[in-house]
Amino acid sequence: MSSSGPVIIAGAGQAGFQVASSLRDEGFAGDVLLIGEEPEFPYQRPPLSKAALEANHNGASVFLRPPKFFEEKKIGLQAGKKVVSIDRAGGSVTTCSGERIPYQHLVLATGTRNRTLDIPGSKTRGVFYLRTIADARGFGEQLERAKRLVIIGAGFIGMEVAATARKRSIDTTVLDIAPRPMARAITAATANFFHNFHSSLGTKIRLGVEVSEIVVENGAAAGVLLQTGERVDADLILVGIGVIANSELASEAGLAVQNGILVDEYLKTEDQNISAVGDCAAFPVRSLGNIRIESVQNATDQARCVAARLAGRVDCYTNVPWFWSDQSTIKLQIVGLVSGHDDVLVAGSPDEACFSAFCFRNGSLVGIESVNRPADHMAGRRLLRHGIPISQDQVEDFKFDVKALEAYARTAALEACP
């Protein structure tokens, strides 16, 4: 690390907060300064599309720690500020207020921002996005009064909000140009299950359709027009069409960027005094190249990895990713990297909302999607952590018993040790 200044963390979301907290857990005694654009103390984002929209929700529960935590841990927090430039040669950052702050090490935890809809009427009153706690408060207030909700985008945010809206008996329509819900992230087998499940709740799911215009009446959104000319009425519209990595700060400082800030296996950028973690970081994964993962687990684990390195314990980042989504009575849990899978075996019963989809790439197990089967998920996390190739034949030979496969993998790992 360079010789003067605090460890500065640009971004006070899940990853940024975790770097600061883990530095103290690791015994780091130097100054730590967390700079966040939002005026709030660090908070969790996953509840914003679920519990935070429920009736009678206490918004305070989304905060990661109470204010006194930052004082007790001697973590400086500048909320409502943004790092706008980096002077790599001088080892300092400049904030939006013009303050120049030298750093010992800089961690970029700048996260992502919503991809926006650019069609006629898209900036009209009644069109919402859901990313920040302020977004959730504004959308939640409108949801209280909504009769007809249109959600543009059948990703995780869209489907989670649809489940919440149907609990309130709001007429809900989900539109997406993709052929399946959550098509970029899960298998066809699991996506088809969720399509059927949400339809059973009364959500109208329209796939393979494109929205061309927001219908405006009396200055507010009144529906959407599809490219076919069909109109779908609504008094509230939510847009959830993905996110973009906030990598401009890094690229303007001359750091390599490619769908995120490029880092090595230690989560360092090409500048040894700057790291990047969480949703904004594109890190190397064998056989997949550089990838970026948007999940709490990835943000938390990468933050802990960087904090340990800054405290003197150097390990590369090799954690197996996992993810979850709660949609009404259904808990979906994913472990591994299922993108690029070329075969799927399903164990259990989709009809009973209790199954796991085993995903393979080139004949080896690369991930497991579990619906209301938490034991499969936990065993799968331990199994994939061993990094031992498991074939389709082995999964079938073990009759889809993940615990038995895990025991086999552990034994094989021990035998492989010299």
Number of helices: 10
Radius of gyration: 23 Å
Number of strands: 26
Strand order in the sheet with the most strands = 3-2-1-7-19
Class inferred from helices and paired strands: alpha/beta
What's the overall geometry?
globular
> Distance N terminus to C terminus?
36 Å
Largest sheet, in brief, is: 5 strands, parallel
| Unreliable residue stretches | none
Share of residues in helices: 25-40%
List strands and helices in order, with pairings:
Blueprint: E1 7-10, H1 14-25, E2 32-36, H2 67-72, E3 75-79, E4 83-87, E5 92-95, E6 100-102, E7 105-108, E8 112-114, E9 127-128, H3 133-145, E10 148-152, H4 156-167, E11 171-176, H5 188-201, E12 204-207, E13 211-217, E14 220-226, E15 231-233, E16 236-239, E17 243-245, H6 248-252, E18 261-262, E19 274-276, E20 281-285, E21 289-291, H7 296-310, E22 322-327, E23 330-336, E24 343-349, E25 354-361, E26 364-371, H8 374-385, H9 392-397, H10 402-416
Helix pairs in contact: 1-7, 8-10
Please give a structural write-up.
- By secondary structure, this protein is an alpha/beta fold.
- The chain has ten helices and 26 strands.
Describe, in short, the structure shown.
This protein is α/β, with parallel strands linked by helices and 418 residues long.
Question: Which terms summarize this structure?
Answer:
about 425 residues; alpha/beta; 26 strands; 10 helices; five-stranded parallel beta sheet
